């Protein structure tokens, strides 16, 4: 184990950014242009609750149509590549490692990497994101990664041409599932909610909002047994299993949206002294990116259970970099 910075010297970093989604790279752009010499720990390892992808959840999005500046749309991985290129153009350093442990009781702050190095820094921007909860079916994961009609974000993808005037399905029964399903009724010819129980967990008002739509239905006591691809490896249907009788059936759909929640990537922050809400998201006491700890900031989905959009994450990354710069200046460290 060594005690070094990202450039191999026994120095103290000014800004370390954990995570490489829209929030992380935007924070890096702003911090680099402010001459703070930021380093981004990209994240490559597999940790609970699932894979921490370089580039975040947009690496599972084949086409992004709702981010300003891309009138023709852009592939999620391509977009994150452009973010990274822009950050590195201004001098951002990127390290293909995870941060696996933190100690925010020390000054400077101390981080431990997946390779065993110890990094010291004056400020940290946590932009580690949140991972969508999946059914963990092989075909589901494959089709989600290759643009085959499986998604974990209806607001991100539901308006795409592939789903317009088509029969689509939403898996889940909580408020998130109802919100996603209601949104999809604007575009799809029919929206089927697949729920493994005989009553929804969502609030009554959210249930009523969805069920009032003429193209809405709920398939009760059903769970997804398999996602069925066509010859082009796009979804053509879903095999369902009745949770009461065990009987299997199939429905034909052109899209499946998994809405069973997200898990913020905060396991490595256990014992850090940060404040988390009931779902594990980092709590920001004010409208800024400041956490309850001095020199520690958070941005993007790791601190946002409501929106979880690329554009809002990027905005939060901007805030975090500006807040970190001001904090460093106030403490004579910029």
Quick structural summary:
This protein has 334 residues and is an alpha/beta fold. The protein is built from seven helices and 19 strands. The two termini are 28 Å apart.
Q: How is this structure best described in words?
A:
The protein folds into two domains: 13-131 and 262-330, FAD/NAD(P)-binding domain (3-Layer(bba) Sandwich); 134-258, FAD/NAD(P)-binding domain. Helix 1 links the parallel strand 1 (13-18) and strand 2 (39-41). It has helices at residues 22-33, 76-89, 138-145, 154-157, 175-184, 204-211, 310-330, and strands at residues 13-18, 39-41, 46-47, 50-51, 93-95, 99-103, 109-113, 118-126, 130-132, 150-151, 167-171, 190-194, 216-219, 222-229, 235-242, 248-252, 255-258, 262-264, 296-298. The two termini are 28 Å apart. Helix content is 23%, strand content 25%. It contains seven helices and 19 strands. The longest helix has 21 residues, at 310-330. The chain has 334 residues and is an alpha/beta fold. Strands 1, 2, 5, 6, 7, 8 and 19 form a seven-stranded mixed sheet that branches. The radius of gyration is 21 Å and the shape is elongated.
């Amino acid at each position: 184990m060594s005690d070094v910075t990202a450039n191999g010297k026994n120095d103290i970093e000014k800004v370390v950014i954990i995570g490489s989604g829209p929030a992380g790279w935007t924070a890096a752009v702003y911090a680099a242009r402010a001459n703070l010499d930021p380093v981004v720990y990209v994240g490559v390892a597999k940790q609970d609750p699932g894979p921490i992808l370089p580039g975040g959840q947009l690496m599972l999005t084949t086409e992004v149509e709702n981010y300003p500046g891309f009138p023709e749309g852009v592939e999620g991985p391509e977009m994150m590549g452009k973010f990274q290129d822009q950050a590195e153009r201004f001098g951002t350093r990127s390290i293909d490692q995870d941060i696996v442990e933190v100690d925010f009781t020390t000054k400077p702050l101390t981080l431990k990497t997946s390779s065993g190095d110890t990094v010291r820094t004056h400020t940290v921007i946590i932009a580690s994101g949140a991972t969508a909860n999946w059914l963990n079916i092989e075909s589901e994961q494959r089709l989600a990664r290759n643009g085959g009609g499986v998604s974990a974000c209806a607001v991100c993808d539901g308006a795409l041409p592939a789903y317009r005037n088509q029969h689509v399905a939403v898996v889940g029964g909580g408020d998130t599932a109802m919100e996603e399903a209601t949104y999809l009724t604007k575009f799809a010819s029919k929206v089927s909610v697949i729920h493994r129980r005989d009553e929804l967990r969502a609030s009554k008002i959210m249930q009523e909002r969805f069920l009032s739509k003429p193209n809405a239905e709920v398939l009760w006591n059903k769970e997804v047994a398999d996602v069925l691809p066509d010859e082009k490896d796009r979804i053509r249907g879903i095999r369902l299993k009745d949770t009461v009788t065990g009987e299997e059936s199939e429905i034909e759909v052109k899209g499946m949206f998994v809405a069973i929640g997200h898990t913020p990537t905060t396991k490595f922050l256990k014992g850090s002294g940060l404040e988390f809400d009931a779902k594990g998201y980092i709590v920001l006491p004010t409208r800024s990116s400041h956490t309850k700890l001095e020199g520690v900031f958070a941005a993007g989905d790791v601190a946002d259970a409501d929106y979880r959009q690329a554009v809002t994450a990027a905005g939060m990354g901007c805030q975090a970099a500006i807040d970190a710069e001001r904090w460093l200046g106030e403490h004579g460290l910029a």
